[in-house]
Amino acid sequence: MLRFGIELMQPDLLMEQALGSTSHPAELGPTELSLDVTSAVERVADLGFNLIELNPDLMVFFPRCFNLPSVERLRALKASRGLSYTLHLPLWSVDPSTPVQPVRRGSVDALVNGLLRMAPLEPEVYVLHATGALAAELGRMAALEPVRPLVMRLFQEQARCSLKRLLDCTGLPSRLLAVETIEFPLELTLELAEEFGLSVCLDTGHVLAGYSGDVTLEGALERTFPRLGEVHLHDGYRRPAPDGSVRVADHLPLGEGDLAVEWFLGQLEEAGFMGPVILELTIEEAHASLEVIRAHCPDLPLPRGPIRRNRRKNMDSVTLLGQEITRQQVIDALNQFDSQYPDTNDYDSWLDKGMYRYAVRYGGNLYPCKFVLSLASGFGVSDFGGGEQTNRLFRRLGFEVINKP
C-alpha cells in the first residue's frame, strides 16, 4: 500500500503561524519571529496527512524552532497522533561537494548537527542532497562541455568524503540515509549509494526536468528500485520551445507536467513499495494532486481528512454564452498561447498593465485569463465579461487562478 505524505515546508502556513495576530510584520525585529513547529505539524496532520517530512532549514528563519523542548513536543505529538516523520537534511547554504574545504567541512558539520538534533524523532528516512549548488551551476556551463565528466567526478569525490564523515560522526545506519536525484548525473549518485550502502530518494520532477542527466523517469525508476527508500512526488517537464530554447519546470501539481501518474504509481504499487511518497507541493497543490491520483488510481488509499471532505469536484466542462468548453480545450488554448507567445509578456505586455488583474498559473507559467478563454471558446475577448466571471470558469475546470504578481 502506498503511503502518501507532505513536506512541512509550507510558506503560507508557517508564516501565518509565526506572525499570529501581528498587523505590522515589517516592524518586527529578526529575533522577534518565532514558530511553534509542533502547532504547524498538528495543522498539517489535521489536513489528513499522518506522514510529514521535516526540514531543519526552518532554523534559518526560526533558530529555536527545533530546540530540545520542541523536539520533545514533536515526539509526544507523533505518539499521540500516530504520525510518522521523514527528515530532509539541511540544504540552504550547505554544499557537501564543494572543493572549497572550509565550506565543505562546515556543511558536513551542519548536516551532522541537523541529523543528531532530529534523531530522537526516529525519522523513517533521512534525505540528503549529496552535491550542492556549485556542482549544478558548473554542470550547466556550456564552456565546460568537453571536460564535464571530469568536473562532475571532482564533485563526486568531495561528496564521497562528506558522506564518509557524516556516517562516521552520526553512526546512522547507512540504509536510512537516502541520496536524492538532484541536478547531478544519476550514475554518479548511484555509485555513491552503492559504495556506502545508501538508499535513494527518487524525485520525479527533477528527473522529468532533466536535472539528473539524459535519463527517462522509466529508466530512473528501474535503476533506483533496488535502493528506493523514498519518493518525492511532483510533476515536471523538459520541452522544446518554438524559439529553439528549452522550457524546464518542476514542483508542479500532478497533471501539469509529463508525469504518467497511473503508470508511475502502478509501478510502485506492483513492486510493493512501502516507503514514504512525499508530495513536495503546497497544501493547495497537494489537494489538486490527490484529486488527480483519485481520478487515475481510484483504488489507491489516500490521506483522509478535511482535504477530502472539503474538496470541490472539478467539472469536465463549463458553459460560456451557451457553448460548452472542456478542460482539454483550455489546455489546447494554453499550448496555442505558448506557440504564439514564447515570452508570455509578448501578448499586449499584459504583465506590465494594471488592467490585467488575474492570471492562470499552469505548468509553472502565467497566462492572461480572458484571452486564453477566448482562444478556447472562439469568442472575442469583448464578447464576455472578465474578472470573477472568467476566473470561476477556470476554477471549475480545475485550473489555478491567482492575482497577477
Description:
It is a single chain. With 405 residues, this protein is an alpha/beta fold. The protein folds into two domains: 3-309, TIM Barrel (Alpha-Beta Barrel); 317-403, no CATH class. Helices cover 41% and strands 17% of the residues. It has 15 helices and 15 strands. It has an eight-stranded parallel β-barrel with strand order 1-2-3-4-5-6-7-10. The chain has a three-stranded antiparallel β-sheet with strand order 14-13-15. The radius of gyration is 23 Å and the shape is globular. The two termini are 41 Å apart. Mean pLDDT is 90; it is low at 305-312.
**Helicity, as a percent range:** 40-55%
Strand order of the largest sheet: 1-2-3-4-5-6-7-10
The arrangement of helices and strands along the chain is: EHHEHEHEHHEHEHHEEEHEHHEEHEEHHE
Q: Quickly count the helices.
A: 15
Count of individual domains? 2
Note the gap between the termini: 41 Å
Question: What is the topology?
Answer:
Elements: E1 3-7, H1 11-19, H2 37-46, E2 51-54, H3 68-81, E3 84-88, H4 101-118, E4 126-128, H5 133-140, H6 148-170, E5 177-180, H7 186-196, E6 199-203, H8 204-208, H9 217-224, E7 228-233, E8 235-240, E9 246-252, H10 261-270, E10 276-279, H11 283-296, H12 306-309, E11 317-320, E12 323-326, H13 327-340, E13 358-362, E14 365-368, H14 369-377, H15 388-396, E15 400-403
Parallel strand pairs: 1-2, 1-10, 2-3, 3-4, 4-5, 5-6, 6-7, 7-10
Antiparallel strand pairs: 8-9, 11-12, 13-14, 13-15
